[in-house]
Amino acid sequence: MTRMMRKRSLPTSSFDILEKAHDIAIKKSKIVEVVGMSSTSTIVVRLGLLLLCSWCLLPDGRSLVAAAAPVPPIRAVNLGGWLVTEGWILPSLFYGIPNNDTLDGTQLQFKSVVQNRYLAAEQGGGGAIVSDRTQASSWETFRLWRINETTFNFRVFGGQFWGVDGTGAVVATATTPGPSETFQIVRRNSDLSRVRIRAPNGLFLQAKTMQSLTADRGVATDWSDSDPSVFLTTTAGRMQGEYQICNGYGIPKATEVLTNHWNTYIKESDFRFITSTGLNAVRIPVGWWIASVPNPPPPFVGGSLKALDNAFDWAETYNLGVIVDLHAAPGSQNPFEHSATRDGTQNWGTTDANIAQTVQVIDFLASRYANRTGLLAIELLNEPWAPGATLSSLKKYYQDGYNAVRRHSSTAYVIMSNRLSIEDPTELLQFASNFSGSVLDVHYYNLFESKFTNFTVQQNIDFVKNNRSSDLDAVTRKNGFPLTFVGEWVAEWDLQGTSKEDYQAFAQAQQNVYGGATFGWAYWTLKNVNRAWSMEWMINNGYISVEG
């Protein structure tokens, strides 16, 4: 049974001080400057933090004395694509993987050249694979589990895997794949979309009739349209996340590639840049395997923990607060590649053991960083997806995760992400109010929904000013907890041919509205090959002004 924790009533608790400091900072917005020890140093005393810390700043922004994390509301940026891989952010990470178009989670459809029909799992799985569909949809789409660059398991809509029964027919009945559910894709060199599929018995699959697929064709082929063992492939979807890059390269090579990425993608100079722009915090996505040192369960690789340690060193040097964000939980809390799912399957929170495993990750992170002055907050989970992540399991986890953080820190904020794909964004509001130092995270994008497709520039801006403002007000309490956090937003939209001035207006409108969040906001993300998604590019090219 879930037991909600009430605010602690310790005398002069850290959060009593922080809460008062937060109120003062919002109402007064004053900074007291005192000329310090020399002409090159200034002691900046932030009103409301006087009880907690003071520090000296060098001209380049570095601190002579360790500084406490900033008082909300913060202005932050996400370090996405660094410690949790997302291929769309930096596609070149995947270029060296052999056959990188058939990674785990790739969705393939097969069309028999003889029958001119798609292969399908009858009833979505649990029975025969047939070749009688004129169009391809979910039952005709198969997700790859990659064994090596040419060998795979094929998973059907219902979750079962292809196999060959005693009569040689291909069926989808196995719930766990093994050698008898392992197939090889053989491609034609001159046309990679034209394939044959070798079964575990060494023979090739063929669609001699529409009613069955059998593993009984020999090796010889002329790749013609009269060969029932030849199929045309269509790729319906791809994934490029942590699972895909690790399993695609294999542990030795993935360790080399990712270690180089961690050491070069985000560096100390980036933290210097961040603080120079007027931002005062970073949100750093991490995966659950970071707590499994030194060797995480396959296919994941170790080493990201050292990079996170470095981030704390740099953040404290440049007076930035750190939000450690559990972006990928064991079992995957959503079907997207950034949760490190293998094939889009979402299994997080389905058992008490899974929740306990996730709490252990939070306990590890809180224990390791509780005494770091840069620690601002720990986010218990990023973007749990409804209905797969149930409200009851999420509340149980948030209760236990909060307790894990409090065992090690009385001052770190604890961020609880709203579920995606829900009708009531206030569903966690009352629950979260029972926890001192709690923060409710919401993500706002004018993307990913059909209603934004035909919006004009002004309609996008008006939507932010009116709808987003109303949405944020609905989850914001003016006094007490939870504070509200727009943990992800971006100045990008479904528009072509827009001007720099359009982008500037859109970005400023969002800053104005999301500035009303009592914990603050964080842009997604610092770096990205897609320019509008890169705050670094947007700032350097005058599209966003944080101080404005």
Automatic annotation (TrEMBL):
Pfam families: Cellulase (PF00150), DUF7910 (PF25490). GO terms for cellular component: actin cytoskeleton; cytoplasm. Keywords: Glycosidase, Hydrolase. InterPro entries: Actin-crosslinking (IPR008999), DUF7910 (IPR057232), Fascin (IPR010431), GH (IPR017853), Glyco_hydro_5 (IPR001547). GO terms for molecular function: actin filament binding; hydrolase activity, hydrolyzing O-glycosyl compounds. Residues 258-527 form the Glycoside hydrolase family domain. CDD domains: beta-trefoil_FSCN-like. It comes from the Eukaryota. Residues 99-234 form the DUF7910 domain. GO terms for biological process: actin filament bundle assembly; cell migration; establishment or maintenance of cell polarity; polysaccharide catabolic process. PANTHER family: FASCIN (PTHR10551), GLYCOSIDE HYDROLASE FAMILY 5 DOMAIN-CONTAINING PROTEIN (PTHR10551:SF30). Belongs to the glycosyl hydrolase 5 (cellulase A) family. This is Mannan endo-1,4-beta-mannosidase. It comes from Eleusine coracana subsp. coracana.
